[in-house]
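Hey,

The postdoc asked me to send both predictions to you directly instead of through the lab channel. I've kept everything plain text so nothing gets mangled by the mail client. Protein one:
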Amino acid sequence: MMSSYFKNILLVLKYGDEKALELSQQIKSFLNIRGIKVEIFFNRLEGKTIEVNSKNIDLVIVVGGDGTLLSVARKMILPEVPFLGFNFGRVGFMAELEADSWQESLENILQGNFRLSNRLELNYDIPSLEEKGVAVNDIVLHRTGLARLLEFEITINKEEKFTVRADGVIAATPTGSSAYNFSAGGPLLFPELKAFVLTFICPFLCPLPSFVLPKSTKLQIVLTSFQSEAMLTIDGQKGILLPPQVKLNISVCKKSFILIQKKESGFVTRLKNKGILQC
């Protein structure tokens, strides 16, 4: 049985969520009866990293919405382990298991009725600010304050260079391609695709197509001039205020984000179920 793969589980929930805590305690008892060790951890939005006592964790269960799952995956200090999400939020695009049928869903997972979705993450590095980290969904450079354009210079693999004036630019993983990137007119990428997408937010004078870039691509974005403040937002959760002439480096992370999904849960099916693809 596939359940033999899961001997030590980390159960993470949003701090202060009473309903998530109640469900987590039920899940813990359910797993303990089956001889599986469980450690409960509370995720705080302001926390930078999640460090656990055991290095033998072989599954991370997140009780919350997609936002909680993103936060935990981004901050987790562990080798590559799969994540399983129980949805307490509104969308549930990644955290697709519903809380009202958790016993049946979890039993199916323990019996091996799942598929692994291996997805890339993005590294970001701002040397002058000593800021670096990982994004699971997207990295967004955007204006803040007054409605004025930003100007930035983009260099691809230290070779090709061009300048753009726009409200901002989005670097999205395949996982994040169905979020802000899609709303800004960018393409949908299948989650396991080894590539990422660069999409411009309201470019000045002429429409600019998105760039779908191979995983080997190294990007540098320089904020060359602006008349209003600029911000870098990571996964819609972490914000970094940017000064003029700052350099931002983006590349694909060596570590992957591994998501456990139902076997019957295809990408197009989920797009239809969540109203993203209406046809």
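Protein two:
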Amino acid sequence: MHDDNRNDSEQGPPGVTRDSDAVQVLHRQALILDCFSRGQPRLRASDVRAATGLPTTTVARILRTLVQENLLQRTGDYYSIGLRVMAWSAAATAGSDLIDAARPIVSDLRDRTGESCIVYVRQGGARVAVLMSHSEQSIIYQGKVGQIQPLNAGAAGKIFMAHEPEALALALDAGLPAFTPNTITSVDRLTDDLALTRQRGWAYSPEERERGLSSMAAPLTDARDALVGALAIGAPAFRLSPESAAQHAPALVECAKAISQQLL
């Protein structure tokens, strides 16, 4: 005769084994991600095996999954931290001070301009949105926090390139790829555009990253006058023309300075 109660007890409650397996997989993924550091930003699969002690097949399977999820990126035999993790890092680096200081002012700028307003920080050769207040109009710029975008296309990217030599060097090293016919791909044209950005205190990008979308941005600085981010307005191109951008510029610059003042 079978003892059903004993069998149920040995098997455990439904889902427990499945949950334990999931926790073990997550632990192993974290173990592998922990192998990457500032001192060791690029590792081979054999390096990961040596550091973790995990079986070869397990390491290969988890590395493949992490690449698919954009948590790691692969170049030849080497792996490095992926853009998804970089977005998390950028949000953490931005810190609560910047986000807390910017939140009410970004909402105010959205109300004053009627357009979506975004705070970006730079992460290496990319910019990442860390705060966003969407327009309440029917046709809007629909971005999201954590979105990663290039430096060479878009107004916020111009702010970083205009004020940070490292950002400009990284953008130039990437080759200034074209995203639309309006993307600036000439070094001479970009140099002139960045000089104008510094001169007037704000940048303008007419459909340079995406057709039908234009943007403008102003710098955010800390107590040392170091650039910590960019405050941007993103809108459909038919509403953010050069003339409209010039009209919005005083409010944009005023709000950027107000956020910077909060960081002193």
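Summary for protein two, as requested: The longest strand covers residues 227-236.

Thanks,
C.
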